[in-house]
Amino acid sequence: MSKPANPFAIGAFLVGALILLIIGVLVFGGGQFLKKKMQYVIFFDSALNGLNVGAPVKLQGVQIGTVKEISLELAQDARKITKPVVIEIDPEAVLDSTGHPFHAADSLEERKKSAQQFIDAGLKAQLQTQSLLTGLLYVEFSFYRNTPVKLIGTNYKGLPELPAVPSAVDQIKDAAEEVLTNIKQLPIEQIVNDFAVTLKELRTMATSEELKKDRATLSKTLKETSVLIENLNRDLTPLVANLNGTMTDTRFMVNQFSQDIKPILISTEKTLGAATSVLLESKHAVGAVEALAAPDAPLWQSLEALRDAAQSTKQLTDYLERHPDSIIYGKGKE
């Protein structure tokens, strides 16, 4: 007969297995259960096809969290639908300026304060495609400082709200819808009717007798203008030829004059050179005369001596005329 199982042993085995499972989860899970994470809610206007729970949440391409919850809220009157998306951000994935992990907000007030800081910095969420093949989406945060902030303001589970901007596909779709709406608002029928009336008036004008007369008059005027231009060209041809001949003769006269005047200019240059030499020699002669005519020059001294000698000779001659016997007896007393 088999021995009955011991309930205490079975219970101890189950408790030990549970403890080992918890330890394994904590060890191999990297301690994710012990980390503090911050949760925020985002309300997207576009469809959420391809966005699943666990999808990455990135900040300019770097994953900082995951999508925690996707819900759908329908108003009582079915006129408004909101799609809250809860995201969970790991503070250790974001470092501050000192290189330490971002401080995780503990209380609701701190989370709202941090959310307001993100909003003031221009941080907004946008849905982007992970892969064109699978069509899966993820949440991408970036700074859109020039885009207005749009908040729903709905209190969803007490979570602080972060703003969102439309995706690139939604922006293209909205632009196309706006263009189509503007086209629909155009008075197409009135435009077509006005265009038809304009074409009818143009046809009537093109087939009118006045237009035919105007075309005939214009054709006649063009022919007369052509004849006038031909006559003018014919009259101007001899004048242009004479003008060309005159220019040729003038050019020949100028060349001849240049050849004739060249020897004269050369002779004039030689004459001017000779005159310059004569002037230089005259200048030297005048200088010599000025040197001889100076008061202290030897020429003046000789002339003064000659004058004194002539005066002495005159006095001697006068004396001999009055006393001729002085030659024999000598000069006596007067």
Describe the structure.
This protein has 334 residues and is α+β, with helices and mostly antiparallel strands. Helices cover 55% and strands 13% of the residues. It has helices at residues 7-28, 108-120, 168-185, 188-206, 209-292, 298-322, 326-329; strands at 38-43, 56-59, 62-70, 73-74, 81-82, 84-89, 123-129, 137-143, 161-162. The protein has a seven-stranded mixed beta sheet, with helices on one face. It has a two-stranded antiparallel sheet with strand order 4-5. It is elongated and about 210 Å long. The termini are far apart.
The proportion of residues in beta strands is 5-15%
Query: What low-confidence regions span 5 or more consecutive residues with pLDDT below 50?
Result: 29-34
Structural class: alpha+beta
What is the average of the pLDDT values?
A: 76
N/C terminus separation: 218 Å
Q: How many runs of DSSP E, i.e. beta strands?
A: 9
Largest β-sheet summary: 7 strands, mixed
Write the layout of secondary structure elements.
Layout: H1 7-28, E1 38-43, E2 56-59, E3 62-70, E4 73-74, E5 81-82, E6 84-89, H2 108-120, E7 123-129, E8 137-143, E9 161-162, H3 168-185, H4 188-206, H5 209-292, H6 298-322, H7 326-329
Summed up, what is this model?
With 334 residues, the chain is of the alpha+beta class. The chain is built from seven helices and nine strands. The strands form two sheets. It has a seven-stranded mixed beta sheet, covered by helices on one side. Strands 4-5 form a two-stranded antiparallel ribbon.
Can you tag this structure with a few keywords?
alpha+beta; two-stranded antiparallel sheet; 334 residues; 9 strands; 7 helices
